[in-house]
Amino acid sequence: MTLYTVMPHEVIWMEETQLHQPAQTMDLQIGSLLMQVEVLSDNKAKIIRLLSCELGDYLNPLYAPGSTISFVPVIEQNRAKV
After folding, report:
1. What is the DSSP track for 20-72?
2. In this predicted structure, what is the pLDDT of residue 82?
3. In whole angstroms, how far apart are CA 11 and each of 6, 29, 70?
4. pTM of the prediction?
5. What is the pLDDT of residue 16?
6. What is the arrangement of strands in the sheet containing 25-30, beginning at the earlier edge strand?
7. Could you state, in order of their start, the residue ranges of all structural domains in the chain?
8. How far apart are CA 3 and CA 24, in angstroms?
9. Residue 70: left (phi > 0), alpha (psi -120 to 50), or beta?
10. CA 73, CA 39: separation in Å to the nearest integer?
11. CA 20 to 30 Å from 8, out of 55, 59, 68, 78?
12. For the chain, what is the radius of gyration of the CA atoms?
């Protein structure tokens, strides 16, 4: 069998279960900046893309896709007005 392709042979002969495992992503809001991130561990994430932000934020290297960020999950308490 001859297979002509530009794809690496590791990808071609990968098992089906390895090909279709989607990354765990979430949308993260930091001020007016909304970004999609891939969760790496409990408090680390890799920026995939910016969804909504100011034009100047696209030029900020801290928010570049591929950058790693740290975050701390916080439980918000809704206080009912008495």
Report:
1. T----EEEEEETTEEEEEEE-SSSEEEEEEEEE--GGGGG-GGGSTT-EEE--
2. 56
3. 11, 34, 31
4. 0.62
5. 59
6. 25-30, 33-39, 44-52, 68-70
7. 21-70
8. 33
9. beta
10. 12
11. 68
12. 19
Q: What is the three-class DSSP state of 18? A: helix
Q: What is the pLDDT of residue 6?
A: 85
Q: Is the dihedral of CA 10, 16, 18, 21 positive or negative?
A: positive
Amino acid at position 82, single letter: V
Residue 31 main-chain phi, psi, to 5 deg = 65, -120
Structure tokens at 50: 């910016």
Q: What is the pLDDT of residue 1?
A: 72
How many residues are present in the chain? 82
First to last CA, the chain: 76
Say if residues 29 and 63 touch (Cβ distance below 8 Å). Answer: no
